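Priority: low. Protein: Phosphosulfolactate synthase. Input follows.
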Amino acid sequence: MNFLQLPDRTAKPRTYGLTSIIDLGTPYKELKNTLMDYSQYIDVVKFGIGTAYVTPNLKEKIELYKEYHVKPYCGGTFFEKCYFQNKISEYVNYLKQLGIEWIEVSAGTLNIPIQERLNLISQFVKDFHVIAEVGSKDINHQMGVSEWKNEIELLLNAGCDYVITEGRDSGTAGIYDRNGNIKANLISSLLEDLDYRKIIFEAPTPKQQMFFINEIGPNVNVGNVKLSDVLVLETQRRGLRCETFFMEEQASTILT
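Result:
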């Protein structure tokens, strides 16, 4: 029954308007119950902070996500650990054995030069969909606006499907200050020249999510969403929460 006029939402399989959740160890049975009800609102899942390496029943969880048409991948910290120990080939084989078709390239912990990341991406795109992340987890490492734009453009031109703007699972780094406040001027500058449909904005808290919905529209790509917040996020996207209640109609993205 649909009788309200609400902002248009893209439908699965989406290419934008993505909700990317972070899995930090959700038990299999709990996950299955949640996906049965809410998988229509989930597009991508990241096994965060290296948890994929120690998660029980990982293969079964990956298969469950794929059964519900949610794309799984391992977070950048796992990738960087493998890079640091010169285990990239082993990492690639590991992902293939698990049936994971997406790979993240990041430099959130290690200072991996952009050219080195581009070289790795040129290898990965032969076998994977690639997501790259821009920004550091170190709050003291500040990037200028031009550096943000340049890296995002280079990574997309190298063949990445999407680029993630760093925010951590705490929302206190990258596009945020140490108190979790959004660097609004940075976001505004990025949106001037870049296609928001190719950027996933890490926004782990409802307050941060609502900023991007009001700034960009209901079909903004949002990442690092907690599994327990999926329905709340969709409610926000539909203008059914106070803070997004009066979302202007032009904020709705044009469906393609």
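The longest strand covers residues 129-134. Strands lie at 19-23, 44-47, 71-74, 102-105, 129-134, 162-165, 199-202, 221-225.
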